[in-house]
């Protein structure tokens, strides 16, 4: 904001550093409807993740490519944390995969990708709803 003091305009900038880990811990896993989660950048870097859950740079790059051309993911599967998932849905916003009784929900945002896994105790639609709603918020805020 700006304020004027004795004829001089002072400009103060406030920066807000987002805690990406709190989004994973509170807004995704903390709901009880996502078992583990990660937020990765479009460049493949991991912004935040659940303990023991890692999305490699290679997995992130292939995932990002799948949003614009899902053919390769449909043919060879989606790999997250070293596990292969059968792709159920793939479009320019969301890619969903299934493995056994669990699965994965991924959503592309402006600068990041949300990755949420669910296990046999969680309904796929509940996990998708949580991940998609957080993605809506991040897209609105430019992330």
So how many helices?
4
How is the biggest beta sheet arranged? Answer: 7 strands, antiparallel
Overall SS class? alpha+beta
Shape: globular
Strand content range: 25-35%
Alpha-carbon distance between the termini?
A: 23 Å
Number of strands: 9
* Oligomerization: single chain
- Unreliable segments (pLDDT under 50, ≥5 consecutive)? 9-17
Helix content: 25-40%
Q: Mean pLDDT across all residues, rounded?
A: 90
N to C succession of SSEs: EEHEEHHEEEEEH
What does this entry show, briefly?
With 143 residues, this protein is an alpha+beta fold.
Helices and strands, with pairings:
Elements lengths: L1 E4 L2 E4 L8 H9 L7 E6 L4 E4 L7 H12 L2 H6 L1 E3 L2 E8 L3 E6 L2 E7 L3 E7 L5 H17 L3
Q: How is this structure best described in words?
A:
It is globular, with a radius of gyration of 18 Å. It is built from 4 helices and 9 strands, in the order ββαββααβββββα. Mean pLDDT is 90; it is low at 9-17. Strand 8 and strand 9 (112-118) form a beta hairpin. By secondary structure, the protein is an alpha+beta fold. Helix content is 31%, strand content 34%. The longest helix is centred in the last third of the chain and has 17 residues, at 124-140. The strands form 2 sheets. The protein has a 7-stranded antiparallel beta sheet with strand order 4-3-9-8-7-6-5, sandwiched between helices. Strands 1-2 form a two-stranded antiparallel sheet.
């Amino acid at each position: 904001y700006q304020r004027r003091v004795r004829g001089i305009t002072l400009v103060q900038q406030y920066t807000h550093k987002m805690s990406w880990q709190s989004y994973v811990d509170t807004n995704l896993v903390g709901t009880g409807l996502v078992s583990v989660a990660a937020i990765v950048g479009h460049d493949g870097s991991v912004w935040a993740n659940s303990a023991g859950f890692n999305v490699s740079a290679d997995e992130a790059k292939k995932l990002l490519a799948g949003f614009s051309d899902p053919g390769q993911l449909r043919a060879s599967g989606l790999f997250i944390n070293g596990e292969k998932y059968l792709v159920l849905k793939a479009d320019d916003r969301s890619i969903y995969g299934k493995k056994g009784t669990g699965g994965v929900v991924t959503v592309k945002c402006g600068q990041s990708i949300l990755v949420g896994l669910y296990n046999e105790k969680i309904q796929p639609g509940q996990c998708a709803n949580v991940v998609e709603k957080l993605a809506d918020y991040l897209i609105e805020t430019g992330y």
